[in-house]
Amino acid sequence: MRIDKQQLIQINDQALPDHRESFGHLSKVLAKKGLDANEVIKKLQAFQVAIPSWALGTGGTRFGRFSTGGEPGTLEDKIGDVGLLHQLSQSAGAISLHIPWDIPGDVQAVKALADSYGLAFDAVNSNTFQDQADQEHSYKFGSLCHVDKAVRQQAIDHNLEVIKYGDALGSKSLTVWLADGSSFPGQLNFKRAFQRTLSSLQEIYAGLPADWKLFVEYKPYEPNFYSTVIQDWGSSHMLADKLGDKAYSLVDLGHHLPNTNIEQIVATLMMVGKLGGFHFNDSKYGDDDLTVGALKPYQLFLIFNELVDGMEDPTSTNPYPAWMIDASHNLKDPMEDLLQSLEAIKLAYAQALLVDRAALEEARENNDPSLAQEILQNAYRTDVRPLLAEARLQSNGALDPVGAYRRLNIRKELISLRGAKTISTGL
């Protein structure tokens, strides 16, 4: 399914007078502060967030899953749905695939389809946290850390196969997230499990193409509840550092214990040039995978404040991070949820771009916490939605993506095309 461009123009035209007024006012406000709205818009247009293939269907918890209907059942359908999101938001210019669910049949046809939507292939993701019907060995007691060399080799071979598929599609990175760990004291030798994981990752790292990156993701608990082999940013960084220059830590917002200072983690990893990727979501208690910015928008802004500081530091050696939404949707229409997440990410990014960094640094040097707070919160409290809307308008997107999605009855159209009982793979 593709949106008729003329329909989108007509929907935008109805909201254009109000938008022009709001954008004009904000531009003047920013100009008085020495900020050029057009320069911010250029940065917003360039900021693209990958959509994971598994987020396009209704997610769920261990208690149940409630299908939205019209879910994508094939890789081609998933690419089409990301194409719809990108056409509306002009912010979702890449798709991230999960193997084994997203193995391409005809690689050239899949690449051509993605290209027709203006999409690139972001990091590919391996899966050694579930058993597949055709695999010889079980991952019940771990994968890359397993005591049995045969199990470890099976997991290594899977990751190397994922690299092969990604390379054929034009991806440039592999994300490894492991469920490996233990649920009971005494179950696992912590040191040996970590050493086996490092050894396994070294074999995977050796199979990377020259221009690829390896992202090592971490998580403190779940599905194991006593220990996780790669439990925090420190263990992730240790592994990435030992692997080599092509290995980096990946930060997932939901993969932290409550009240963790994620912005400090981001700043530290960027300081040493080892922040490779960032997964966006939101949470109240744990890895809740809720809509980005739904609960903690100020924390998201503070994180972006550090990200922008690192990205705009001319002395930084950190590569440009890979951005992706990693969320699971059980109540909302997944497409609407992703559009809302994209908006929240861009809002926080735009607000962080407005921070007066020279004044903030001066306040820090003068030990003036009150002024430092004022500088940050003045940027955070600025309504930057007209900037985002203008960036989309200039890129032929929708002024109001969720509103346009509903006006165009896209979910109804998808149900008519695919049926009401379809279930997306990869969840």
UniProtKB/TrEMBL annotation:
<dbReference type="InterPro" id="IPR036237">
    <property type="entry name" value="Xyl_isomerase-like_sf"/>
</dbReference>
<dbReference type="Pfam" id="PF01261">
    <property type="entry name" value="AP_endonuc_2"/>
</dbReference>
<dbReference type="InterPro" id="IPR050337">
    <property type="entry name" value="L-rhamnose_isomerase"/>
</dbReference>
<feature type="domain" description="Xylose isomerase-like TIM barrel">
    <location>
        <begin position="104"/>
        <end position="289"/>
    </location>
</feature>
<dbReference type="GO" id="GO:0016853">
    <property type="term" value="F:isomerase activity"/>
</dbReference>
<keyword id="KW-0479">Metal-binding</keyword>
<keyword id="KW-0413">Isomerase</keyword>
<dbReference type="InterPro" id="IPR013022">
    <property type="entry name" value="Xyl_isomerase-like_TIM-brl"/>
</dbReference>
<keyword id="KW-0464">Manganese</keyword>
<dbReference type="GO" id="GO:0046872">
    <property type="term" value="F:metal ion binding"/>
</dbReference>
<protein>
    <submittedName>
        <fullName>L-rhamnose catabolism isomerase</fullName>
    </submittedName>
</protein>
